[in-house]
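User: Can you help me understand a structure? I only have the sequence.
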Amino acid sequence: MKPSRPRTPSRGLPPAPSLIWLGLALALTGLWAALLLTDAWPLLRGPAPWPPEWRWLYAPLRGTHLGRQAVQWAALAGYLLAALWALRGRRLAWGLAMAAGFLLLWQLIQTWVREPGLLDAMIERAYSPVANGYLLAPAQVDDVTFTLHHYAAALPEFFSAKPRTHPPGLFLFYAISNALFERMAGFSAWLGPLARTWALPGRDWPQLPDHLIASAFVTAWVQAGLTALTPLAMFAWARTLAGDRAQGWALGSALAVPLIPALGLFLSQWDMVYPLLGLTAWTLALTGQNRAWEQPRARAWALWLLAGLTLSLMT
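Assistant: Let's start by predicting it. Here is the structure, written out as tokens:
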């Protein structure tokens, strides 16, 4: 007997069990966040002796940088009003464009509020041997191709800790970027000296060659731009999951993505691209599943393979 494909819900909202699970997930997330913020259970932040006391890197600013905080809150209020306008009118194109644009801007604002220099922070975070480290790994080897062919043997020789323990995906990304800006000598010679004027006292990244400074700055923007695409991936996933009749719910999910704190706080950290990759992979897998139900002879395996390859980029 040929299996029948489950019918798509006819309502504009997900079924009640889905809403219950969503509410439970939000409640548990809120409880977890409250426990972390209050340090009610110290074991959650790790065993002693390090850190010896609770230290939240992104604690509330309280009375500092009041002018910048005012800009931050004004931007957030403006986005919330615009999001409600888009959601009420089911303005898909406007809503998705605003969500992606605001998430890009929100990353910059969050960094600008907390850092003395925004442009300096972008380069510092992309270069930092502790926070990133991938930028320098290709620069310290003589032959990138040879290193890739003998990557396991090269791991212990890298200067930074992260490249010593991770697959070569980001190593290859920065190798291509570094080589590109080394070839674009004129652009790098213009951007390098200009970027050095943004450096705060005590920074050591100004000692880098011009092409590495250009690579750090541009790749920081690439990472921020990829993170800003997360609302679009959320919309595609939610609509694929719930059907075309649930576009309002899918739009609301996309508009809520920029409000996830981590996506705005950790500019230039590649972990922020994981939601984009994960949602894209799930969308491809669900699309393949739906096609397999509708057309049993369809080549759904190609979409599942592409979903797996997309998911593998997270490593």
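Now, to help you interpret it: The chain has 16 helices and no strands. The mean pLDDT is 85. Let me know which part you'd like to focus on.
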